[in-house]
UniProtKB/TrEMBL annotation, chain A:
Domain SUF system FeS cluster assembly SufBD core: residue ranges: 114-341
One GO BP annotation of this record: iron-sulfur cluster assembly
Family: Belongs to the iron-sulfur cluster assembly SufBD family.
Source organism of this protein record: Ammonifex thiophilus
Protein name: SufD family Fe-S cluster assembly protein
Coiled coil: none
UniProtKB/TrEMBL annotation, chain B:
Species this protein is from: Ammonifex thiophilus
Pfam families named among the record's database cross-references: ABC_tran
Chain ranges of the ABC transporter domain: 5-250
Entry-linked PROSITE patterns: ABC_TRANSPORTER_2
Signal peptide: none
Keyword Cell division: no
GO MF terms held by the record: ATP binding; ATP hydrolysis activity
Recorded superkingdom: Bacteria
Record-given protein name: ABC transporter ATP-binding protein
Gene3D superfamilies: P-loop containing nucleotide triphosphate hydrolases
Amino acid sequence: MSKELTSSLDLASLPPEEKECLLRVGIELSGEGRGGTYLQFDQEVFQYQSWQEGLEVLSLAQARRLYPWVEDYLGRLLPEARPEDPEARGYFVRVLPGVEVHHPVQSSLFIAREGTRQEVHNLVIVEEGASLKLITGCASGACVRRGQHIGITETFIKRGGKLTFTMIHRWGEEVESTPQGAVWVEEGGTYIYNYICLSGAKKLVTNPSTYLAGAGAVVRSQSILLAPPGTSMDVGSRVYLRASDTKAELISRAITTGGEIVSRGLLVGEVAGVRGHLECHGLMLTPQGRILAVPELEARTANVELSHEAAVGKVAEEAVEYLMARGLDEEEALAVIVRGFLNVRIEGLPPALQEEIDRIIKVSAAGV
Amino acid sequence: MQPLLVLEDLSVAVGERLVLRDINLVINPGETHVLFGPNGSGKTTLLGTIMGFSRYRVVKGRILFRGEDITSLPVDQRAVKGIGLAFQRPPSLRGVLLRDLVRRLKQDGVALERMAEELKLSEFLDREVNYGFSGGELKRSELLQLLAQNPSLVMLDEPESGVDVENMALIGKVVNYLLEKEPAPWDPRSLREVRRSRTKGGLIITHTGYILNYVEADVGHVLFQGKLCCSGNPRELFSCIQKVGYTECIRCMNLNGGCFCV
């Protein structure tokens, strides 16, 4: 199930600043501490490999060659996005029934050359009772300003399966990124989705859908957004609770230092006995910038329990002075508050990324 | 002896409204003062002004701390110099763990656990600061932070509000540690040593007077409509207020040029 491709690219010869870019989106090039890896640079599939029995990590094209049934999955959730080209790029990750993947699997979609248009279609299947942590790091190289990333991911979590999907984006300032996704969760399945984008993208639009299709299925989604000047983000999450006892929790934290953020959330209660909560908090660190919080709740039957909580504003003066009364200077006080604001406890966050988050918080708090 | 705190002719405005007028107060090292006064008389404003909060604007007079004019010093520098305040209604800090905050104030992790245990807050260390805390828990969390901060001037804004009887004794005990009236369990000094070398001062706002049952105070003051009207023995002053009420207390003072009702 593993394969290293020969390629014009060579990991060892990758410039250190490019490696750094990958580290910052959670990609360990050595593969250390990872259960599997998929690396794609621009439109070139560079490496895919699995280090655990019962875990398959392939390129989508290879998976289509090996398993004819893959075709049944493609476009099932997003018919309009079905990739007709058999060589369409993207990754395929599948965990066989009952298998618990111990280490996170990483996949990287990297824009290495100026002006690249990167298009991928990914397929993730967590079979019955299996569990997986997947980190997808999408980034552009140190020298890249301009580029386009169009990623489509279809995800299936079968009965009792569990997937933690952490997507980290880090783009050059002129990059446009429009990832789309849809997730199908069967009975008793759990889907945990973390989305982190702390750096510029000229335009970022993503609003994946999750269908809680089986009884007792659960989704928990957390997004952390930081928009510097010149960036525009329109990020959301939609959840359709269509089976009894399903549960959804969507949390979003948006910070602007001058950019524009639209933070969306939609919960649709389609049957009775479902529960969902939406939390949308925005922080304006500078007088410039704009945050629009759009929490939406839709009940299609009585007897659903859907709620939301949204708050947008600047850091409370009272909280800053409270910390200053404890001896922290203003900058430290702000940093503590902002870090707290972003502290939504993301499981299995790589240390390099944690450092990056801390660095950004420090910089943005200092700039207030 | 250099006074710990001196307020000289201090007048303070909030927005355009004058809230405190011509306040004069001296707190010497080792002294504990108590501040009485009806709601809205300016007690919290006085403590907030000493701490330096931006919404309290000093329009006249000055504040001296250990002889140094701190009237225009920012809040954090006053804290670093040794002024500490337990808030009446502290804000909650989402995502900030109490443990992390207290650790910032005091590096010594062992003592931190010990202090939290003393205040029955061990389980609260891993919770968000003040978020979802009950009235009594808020007060204890404030005292924990002050213990870690270890200020020379301890200001407490209604340490007893929302606290049940059992926890009142606990709060009284910890306030005595803060004011060097009793050695804390982690303090190697004896009771006598602590009292003899006491330099800390206290300024405590109380409504109910319960704190007086646990903490020995030296001087009491009545703040009424933004003015310090009378001073005296805190217990006597408090029983007078309880008997005749603030208005009568002040009227008596105006008639006699001092408080003679006790």
